[in-house]
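step: validate -> pass
step: tokenize input -> pass
step: predict -> running
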Amino acid sequence: MKKLLFALLTLIPLAGFAQNAQTTRPLFDKKTIGEIRVTLPAKNWGDALDSMRLYGEGMMVGTALVDGRKYENVGVRFRGNKSYQMGIKRNPFHIKLNYSNGEQNHQGYTSLKLSATKADPSMVREMLFHEIAAKYMPSSAASYTKLFVNDEYAGVFINLESVDGLFLDNHFGSRKNPFFKAGVDYKPETAASGCKQNIFGSLEYEENIDCYRENFTLESDRGWADLQELTRVLKNEPAKIDRILDVDRTLWMLALNNVMVNLSSYTGIYSINYYLYKDNNGRFQPVHWDLNLSFGSFKNTGNGSDLDLRGLQRLDPLLHADNPYKPLLSQLLKDPLNKKLYLAHIRQINDENFANGAYEKRAKELQAMIVVPFNDDKNKIYNIDDFQKSLTATVGKKSKIPGIVELMSKRSRFLKEHPELTALPSAISDVSVQGRGKFENQRLNTFRIVANVDRFPKKIFIYYRFDDSRPYTAMIMTEEASSDLPSGVKTFSANIEAQSEDAVLDYYIMAENAGTVSFSPLNYFSKPYKIKLSDLNK
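step: predict -> pass
step: emit ->
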């Protein structure tokens, strides 16, 4: 045991303990461990919160000290669905800072969502998933924090950025549009008539709009008709779905679920644990949630019994592609280009995070940071040996939670060799924007973008926008005549008219060949190409 603790401690970054007392710790700082102290009026606070969770929707009023900042009259309750367990103190918490005072917040955040990492002896699944997902789509910030309740140490938790007002503002520029969470904590007292049974958040179309209330939680003051319209288009007019759904973001969400075997999600049996927000452009945006059962901790796809380790390692990248009861997958993947996009996303996620071993290194860093507060937790479900073992081997005789490396090392190889993922993408190179000639007097009012593409490209698309709050517009690039290029390489161009003299263009390029698609830049989600018209006219 002493050797184990020493080994983990040697991995702890010294920066994790170098917090300057004179500065305010950022709530989601990943290099330090936060501290939240809650004071509640109930001596037996665990039993009291259990009772409230079982019989009501309210919150217990108390005081919270967040990294040294005190907040009065906050609301506290146990949260979670499958992650909640009656009779234990180590449950997920929801601390609502603005419960009594609508203006009260900590660094702009009005709610604290603490994950107890149930069914995750490693305590890194949720952190790792969010960090990887954030490379490709909006995802909650996450960090570790120690929690005390009535001065009793309740353990180290994952502090998750709540998907609510500030998150929506930061990622989508608004917070007042239709907003839903897949799944409900409390079913309506009166069941609507004619509803499909046990479909959860699958987005199957319902004639009776009240049926959606049994499967989704409305987080805004309106929107049921919008949600019904989404499911109607998905069912009857899938070719028009991109006007009401951000298809690329949705394909990223589904690809992330598949690669990291997150089956307590849309990809699994219940179609839960995600949000849908309708942005200012009228398109629904998906957001992951509740990821502590990812990396194979939950094992049911809805096709038969739970998967064993080999089944998890070899999870089909096209799982549910033909399942009419999972229309978000089956309807989107009917489109050949969407299917190529989805599979290309799976390939990229695997290459950038798993095939290179980056996930294992990061998992060890995260564990090293929390080994001491984890070991000090008297309420912990797993012991220190299981904590360490869970990175590399299965933990639990009944639950059989796979080790993350045990699962992903073989899964990564399986995906690398899967016939749907072995097509060679076209390489996009020499991307350039034509500027004004040295002795030309006439100013440019058009962005002329040129790129070379190899491996027998079929179509080359350029996606562009002049405002990062707007969706990209797609344009097919034109093949240019060229005789001095290597065999198999072609030049393509596009002319995009500027909207003003100070126009700034964001863009990325996608090349489609017979087998797959490729992108330039690869990280187009966060860092597309950017060019100012004024720079071209210098």
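step: describe -> The chain has a mean pLDDT of 93.
step: cleanup -> pass
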